[in-house]
Amino acid sequence: MDKKAIFDKYGFLIVMVVSVVIFGIFLGTKDIIKYNETKKIAEQESKENKGKKVIQSDTGEIRIVTDESGETQTEAVTEEKQHRDFVTVDESYLDGALFIGDSRTQTISLYANWDKTVFYAEQGVSVWKILDEKIVKSGKKKITVKKALEKNKFEKIYIMLGINEIGTGTADTFAEQYGKVINTIREKQPDAIIFIQSIMHVTKKKDKEETYIKNKEIDKRNKKLKELTNGYDIIWLDENEVFDKKDTGALDPKYTSDGVHLMPSCVPRWKQFFLEHGIVK
Fold first, then answer.
1. Exposed/middle/buried for 184, CB within 10 Å: 0-12, 13-18, 19+?
2. CATH class of 52-275
């Protein structure tokens, strides 16, 4: 049978088969294009969200973002709520408040005689261990800070940590862990106002000694800590404004005997600082 005869007999069928194949190719091409577009969008979203961890707070979030270079960025993400301004309050404001911290906070607990204020403080404690340290008296035994936060309720919580961590990790990893601590505190104390206190500087003399404690590093970490605050229920307090020697970026020697810790005689001024920086709901 010649070609013409074959076409006359099967032409319609051949045309149909060719049409189906062409149409199938067209649909397949569209699907491939759509798949590639969807994949591209997904890859872009994955890239944008890579390494993101979100820590919830009462009114917003503390987001910890690790970028492609491995560097960590921390930031407070809040709802549209008005920032609260500082007001001067009386001494009763500190009644029932909780102070969490290291040996610097212990200076207050030992010498302030604030009988109605609670202290969870321990020499040498760090932001990596503070929640799990058994430093809180409960009857005849001691319990962890985390457990104590579950058992007691506080309206105001002041945190001072950081001097013991200067030689550990980086400003980014420090702030990341600090954010986790805040997250846990917020979970246990959803209605509390949390005050993040700055890491206080050391004296110039101490800074020049061959140790890991450097004011330059303290400043880096304070910058990261301030980014964790939102001005509403996580508040930044900078004691360096009070105790630094003017225009030096270092602790004034007249306030310390070892270049690091405030002397007991500084407690009244420290107390005044807190009372001048009250936050009222």
1. middle
2. alpha beta
